[in-house]
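Write out this protein's structure.
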Amino acid sequence: MENNKNQTGVYKNINSYYIDNPDGLSVCIIEINRPEVKNALNTETMTEIMDVLEQVDNDDSTGCTVITGSREAFSAGADIKEMAEAGAIDIYLKDRFAVWDKLRKIKKPFIAAVSGYALGGGCELAMACDLIIASESAKFGQPEINLAVIPGAGGTQRLTRAVGKGKAMEMILTGKMFSGKEMFDAGLVSVLTREDEYMNEALKTAIEISNKPSIAVQLAKESILKSFELSLNEGIEFERKNFYLLFASEDKFEGMKAFIEKRKPVWKHK
């Protein structure tokens, strides 16, 4: 698969390309590439990541995205130089989190492949992804308290939902780093691997997702994310509507017919 890499575009702070998948839709890879600052996330970098994610959402030939950094750092956090001299009104008027809010509107799954530091904004970016696959060398943390601020890109909310109040309080109030194993045990990390296997595992998972019928994958993701916003009854009603909607897809008829005929389905992603 890795022999067929097609760039999504030319960017300053990231590398991004599509990998062909002979058994299904292609996979997109986004590599944060700012080694001089341990892949710190400035507004320009987040804008470039969002540009690629939106491309994937509008590309019928691609099913899933993997976001990664380097072995040393997924991302060590926000670019502090961008905020060091800013006041409250500056931050408000620049609306630096507008690009982060767009992450919630991406329909196709995107996976964080984490090794090394995932701190502050880097941890928040990983948590904004639909799955986190991490190496044993990964180090997660929300150290903003050491700068006399708090997480601002969803850290207090997503972390608490993922690991519970107690662990979120410990991470955010102390600013301590936690290992990939600790975060796997706490429920933040979906899959934990050796340091040399995290990217292969992320690709394997992305390919598996891209081999599934894309519309069903997107509506399943949408339904899961709604569970954080709705009551149980409201969530079940939302799920039911998406269930009914899928009975209008061509893939529903193909999937059930193939099951009855005991053959492999041929998805049209329609």
